[in-house]
Amino acid sequence: MRTTILFLALLTAMAAASERSDLEISIGGGVWMPALFDSDAGLTPGPAIIVSLQIPPSLGNCFIIEASYLSAGTDSDNWGSVTGLPLTVGYRMYPFYRRYAGPRGIEPLLGIYGGGMLLWDSPEDNQDKTSTGAGIIGAELGARVHLGESTSIDIVVTPEWVSAGSALGGETGKDLSGLQISASIAF
Question: FRET label pair with 81: which of 47, 89, 172, 174, CA 20 to 30 Å apart?
Fold first, then answer.
């Protein structure tokens, strides 16, 4: 109950914010493509759900705290999916933002981030379920498209390095480095 009240209070404060220097909440989704650089990997792309809080120390950049739900399928008959819950902290900048010019139609963005991820797999039969942790380091390249005075869409391509503690989903490798493509509504 307390969490719900805190979330609603934060959402109300965000709705009243209209300047670029205010906090922003971003909610979106996309696709997660793990083990993209491993030619022998049997993991298939899956959905990503993303929620983030953007904290601007100045108008042309921000700190971003992001939590996600990631899922990927497997080509193996014995395994159903690999699921991850990452929590990351990053720094994002908008290099062409002009302070007194007002919002542009499209603003490029660049960013870096790091954090951790809890991962687990879902066996189909009598296989042992595996859960592990992973470290994440990534970069962001994208654009912010303004929809109004205080609402925008962030379209981001994110190559990331993910090193898991153990192999998941019947894979032999621990490297889940890959790519995320996402679109989020920021308000």
Answer: 89
